[in-house]
Write a structure and sequence with these properties.
The chain is an alpha+beta fold. It folds into five domains: 209 residues, Penicillin binding protein transpeptidase fold (Orthogonal Bundle); 247 residues, DD-peptidase/beta-lactamase superfamily (Beta-lactamase, 3-Layer(aba) Sandwich); 31 residues, no CATH class; 45 residues, no CATH class; 81 residues, Immunoglobulin-like (Sandwich). Helix content is 32%, strand content 18%. The strands form nine sheets. A five-stranded antiparallel sheet has the order 7-6-14-13-12, with helices on both faces. Strand 25 and strand 26 form a beta hairpin. Helix 4 packs across helix 5. The N and C termini lie far apart (114 Å).
Amino acid sequence: MLVLAFALWPLLLATAWLVPLPASLDREGSEEIRYEDGSAAWLSLSADEQWRVPVALDAVDPAYVKALLAVEDARYWLHPGVDPIAIARAAGLDLLRGRVVSGASTLTMQVARMTEPRARTLPNKALDALRALQFDLRRTKSQTLATYLTDVPYGRNIQGVEAASLWMFGHTSAALSPAEIATLLAIPQDPNHRSPSPANRERLTSARDAIATRLWSGATLASVVQTSVPVGFAAIPRDIPHAALWLDTVGARHSQRVVRTTLDRGAQRVAARTLDGASDRLHETGIDNGCIIVVEHATGRVQALAGLDGLGDHPGSQIAPFAQPRSPGSALKPILYGLAMDRGLVRPASLVADVPAHYGSYSPDNYDHQWSGMVRMDEALSRSLNVPFVNLLSRFGVESFLGTLRAGGVRHLSPVPGTYGLSAIVGGLEVTPLELAQLYTAIAEDGRVHPLTALADEREAATTRIVSPGAAWITRETLRLRDRPDFPSRATLTGAPLRIHWKTGTSFGNRDAWAVGSGARYTVVVWLGNFNEAPSQALVGAESAAPLLFDTLEGLHDGLPPGPAGDDPAPNDVEQVEACALSGEAAGPDCPRTRVLGLVGHAPHVACPLHVTAQVSTATGQRVTPECATGPTTSATFVQWPANVARYLGDRLSVEPTVPPWAPGCAPANARVPRILAPGENQTILLIPGMAATDQQVALEAEGEGELVWYVDGRLLARGRAGERQWWTPAPGKHTVSVMDAGGATTTRAIAVQGGGA
């Protein structure tokens, strides 16, 4: 027999090297997405519909590996795939008992059987033994053991110790308790009768305790037998359904089976819990889609990507919302605010007009349809007034603003010049939630945009500065002026961080609600809406999105503590500068002086235009010149409001003395030429279809000095004070509108009227 064995050995070796290894030896596993700390965030079925997670030998708890070998194959590291000692022992016991009472399968033979399932017959066991010898010749012991750890069956379609640990215990196999180790060893011995279920509880408990008795004693054994066995499978890691879908769309999951992300497990759960808590309320108000993004703004690492309701049944729930372009409403105003300060166009204290305005055919309105007359620029941002920012964008330049957005990472803008107009600042373009988060890192990080990354192995990209450190700091301070709208006193009651800078946005027609803001470490974006474009009255940034923003930042315990600005000290390019006490602009010779916050080297280019010093007749109070004065005069300083503002300030003008009219015959030739505010230059007025032109009227408005006279096509229309609105009944065709002041100065504008008809 020995001679025969030696004679056959070369044949066995040749066969082992010539016969191909089974194609199923290293089967493809489930797709796995991991958190930043390496823990599982998402698992999907393998191509053959199994929950199978490939795992390296050194990634499994060494105590489990030691126990596995002790129970299943004590001489694993010594035998050549088949254990002669175990075979002899098993044969002796079988002969002694007269029946099969002991097997001799090694772990390597079990791998062969798992790789090529066959009926348990003696010839098939011989085939398993031959495969085991082949494996040991052509693979390392560690490779074979790793295959066992990946493929060992646990019932249903769960394979491998890693998948079983995730399913049964909710964590990986890297650290296992003695009770978990004994359970993981017991089930593969008879998966059909020991797989966790109420029916299998007693069988699994008995088998587990028997294994524990072989392995341990004393307190360890006692702790195992006192621990209940699992009676079902816990939820497999499926924490990030929309993030997994998004990673698939960007190709991250096509190149590798294990995707390591920058997502933080704690931040992800805070964001998901915030959305889950609001889910019922949102759906009741007609909001089916939404997301929360959390970014570490100092690095650009995405820490959370949570979508509303997972991949549920609501419309659009199968769409990953993070990279979907949507109208941001007013959420881009802080970016323009910082840019305009750097260009010297405004300061926080700058007094700007908030009155009806016309830019050709475009007439912006405020959200509440109310007007404030004149407001500080920081108040205009805090209150999210539209007209001051539309006017600011007209001064800054639309294309310049769009260029900055592109530099900041916005990729969803048309490259064709002229595509976007002044409405861009109030939602007339689209950005994605991820792009908005990236833009806001500039506000949090002293003007530098940090490109976002969600993959752990992706190199951190270089930052791009879009505003100065001082402009970013002033913007942060302005955005901290408002407390959370749904519970303003909450911070004083709970001790939650107060110093959060934030902004909301609501798109036209109530189709999108946004809130974006930052604490000390994180920038958070909340978007709510409907992918089927259904509007909802609840889609208002301050009402629906802002509470979720604050809940997320408070859940992350992020934000500067309450206190003075020293918690976020001003950079070196911020200083207190002298300015007009009323307008906040550079003080002119007639202005009262004060000191306001400004940027070093970025002073406004034009001095305050509001204050005028004039000679006034003591008798009549009218303005005069030395040449036309007929009696005593006095010098006085007045506020000369723009005409369009004066009409809307009304009685409030009394708080500041306004410029009196010229005395008859005293207006100098260089008095201010009247300026037509409405209609706009080359404007086309569209009449309402179905209504006669004679039943429609067009507003005419101008600013100038004293009484103004209006003409249409050379015919007198009306007389009135500067700033007083006049009305004209239009007729289709081309027309010329003129306005003339008392000194004869005239301004003319061409317009066209189209449409109408009853």
